TrEMBL record:
UniProt-recorded name of the protein: alcohol dehydrogenase
Lineage: Eukaryota, Viridiplantae, Streptophyta, Embryophyta, Tracheophyta
Localization per Swiss-Prot or TrEMBL: Cytoplasm
Alcohol dehydrogenase-like N-terminal domain ranges (all copies): 117-246
Record-linked Gene3D superfamilies: Medium-chain alcohol dehydrogenases, catalytic domain (3.90.180.10), NAD(P)-binding Rossmann-like Domain (3.40.50.720)
Keywords tagged on the record: Cytoplasm, Metal-binding, NAD, Oxidoreductase, Zinc
Pfam families linked to this entry: ADH_N, ADH_zinc_N
Cofactor: Zn(2+)
Length: 462
């Protein structure tokens, strides 16, 4: 019998009572389990302990229909406060290396150097695949940088910190983010921008800022980083400014998807498009990012949410995210912007583009109502793509905007997005359609290429 309590806090028998969080997805009777322990369920930093199969630290699970109990006395749990026995040392661990464009990733043993000035080394527990990884792996419309460790949507735990890092310590739970927040530059000080001068997304850089070197190597040969995160590795090194410290009780196998796609779509609507109550919103592309944008429209009180996608399989799924109407551009001879203008008496109030395709970007702009319509571009286009539209479309008082990461500042804002999930204002489970062990990471790529599912969680410990 398996349990669905993953990531939930459960109370454990034994004295003194402690609160434990299970890290595994499925628990069967007499399994050994991994869990985190907290002395105080609300505020205390959690200490991580992996329970091995050795008899002294084994937990016994008894299942009783859907309920189960865990018996373990506190003195059987030896906590490893710092998790940093490897601090300052090179760690050898598994990583999925992209050796060449479009070729399956290969699980290799890599060396991960210790974190340098303002850097943090983290243990990744869960990562997921976003379309941006696939674009840079295919490298069709992007600069090829190989060999590289991709991955940027993840949840992990701080293993050790480099010189100058004061906000994080070993054991902290973090979400790495592809764009950072130095907290000192004009952008970080501006309320409007999240385009940090120092740490904004740079897809061509494959090295760390501090010394322009990689922290990953195989037999001394460097392996490049990806957008400062490289989460397809059991351990990775990230600039402190690209790490959001989150509530340690938040289940990392769920909130890891807030590290990129879901926050991006949600923020694109809530922070950038800002639809008014009872307004109409078109969402182009009903992948995880687009559905998160639809979720934002629903939360904002939009009355019509028009989903646009070439893949009709997305439509059924999209109903769960508040999408009220669907348009498949393939079903019409005329441009989709004309179809939407006819459906909405001149155009939608807001549109959010989440496809990465230039035609969809242009349609998303041209389908907003003149006078007040606002279109927001989110998709990452081919590097040579050019946005062409008649200037009259702008003169007629339509607004075109774009955003990275939904305008969220990763360190300042993401902890509160995690709290939205913890308070049940935001549902994440419906975005998670698949799960694979790290050894089968290429399956996650296959699913995304086939357009199946939304987010596939990759479990690092499996
Ligand atoms: P996804 O592949 O899961 O979803 C994309 C969807 O768009 C698919 O359902 C596809 O059928 C649809 N689509 C493709 N071309 C279309 C067209 N011309 N018209 C209508 N629908 C079309 O991808 P995802 O993970 O949801 O990511 C979406 C986009 O957002 C990608 O381009 C990704 O790189 C980008 N992204 C941007 C940011 C940012 O900060 N700006 C962050 C994350 C992802
Ligand atoms: Zn900055």
């Amino acid at each position: 019998m398996s349990s669905t309590t993953t990531g939930q806090v459960i109370r454990c028998k034994g004295k003194p009572p402690h609160v434990y969080q299970i890290l595994q997805t499925q628990i069967k009777p007499s399994d050994s389990i991994s869990f985190k322990r907290s002395l105080d369920p609300i505020n205390t930093r959690l200490l991580l302990k992996t329970i091995s199969s050795s008899s002294s630290s084994q937990a016994i699970i008894k299942t009783n229909s859907s309920r189960f109990k865990i018996f373990c006395s506190s003195d059987q749990v030896t906590t490893n406060k710092s998790m940093s026995t490897n601090a300052g040392q090179v760690i050898r661990c598994k990583a999925a290396v992209a050796w060449e464009a479009g070729k399956p990733l290969v699980i290799e043993e890599v060396e991960v150097a210790p974190p340098q000035k303002m850097e943090v080394r983290i243990k990744i527990l869960f990562t997921s695949l976003c379309h941006t990884d696939v674009y840079f792996w295919e490298a069709k419309g992007q600069n090829p940088v190989f060999p590289r460790i991709l991955g940027h949507e993840a949840g992990g735990i701080v293993e050790s910190v480099g010189e100058g890092v004061t906000d994080l310590q070993p054991g902290d739970h973090v979400l790495p983010v592809f764009t950072g927040e130095c907290k000192e530059c004009a952008h970080c000080k501006s309320e409007e921008s999240n385009m940090c001068d120092l740490l904004r997304i740079n897809t061509d850089r494959g090295v760390m800022l501090h010394d322009q070197k990689s922290r990953f190597s195989i037999n001394g040969k460097p392996i490049f980083h990806f957008v400062g995160t490289s989460t397809f590795s059991e351990y990775t090194v990230v600039h402190v400014g690209c790490l959001a410290k989150i509530n340690p009780l938040a289940p990392l196998d769920k909130v890891c998807i807030l590290s990129c796609g879901i926050s991006t779509g949600l923020g694109a609507t809530l922070n950038v498009a800002k639809p008014k109550k009872a307004s109409s919103v078109a969402v182009f592309g009903l992948g995880a990012v687009g559905l998160a944008a639809a979720e934002g429209a629903r939360i904002a009180g939009a009355s019509r949410i028009i989903g646009v996608d070439l893949n009709a399989n997305r439509f059924e799924l999209a109903k769960k995210f508040g999408v009220t109407e669907f348009v498949n551009p393939k079903d019409y001879k005329k441009p989709v912007q004309e179809v939407i203008a006819e459906m909405t008496n001149g155009g939608v109030d807001r549109s959010v583009e989440c496809t990465g395709h230039i035609d969809a970007m242009i349609s998303a702009f041209e389908c907003v109502h003149d006078g007040w319509g606002v279109a927001v571009l989110v998709g990452v286009p081919h590097k040579d793509a050019v946005f062409k539209t008649g200037p009259i479309n702008l003169l007629n008082e339509r607004t075109l905007k774009g955003t990275f990461f939904g305008n969220y500042k990763p360190r300042s804002d993401i902890p509160s997005v995690v709290e939205k999930y913890m308070n049940k204002e935001l549902e994440l489970e419906k975005f998670i359609t698949h799960e694979v062990p790290f050894s089968e990471i290429n399956k996650a790529f296959d699913l995304m290429l086939k357009g199946e599912g939304l987010r596939c969680i990759i479990r690092m410990d499996a």
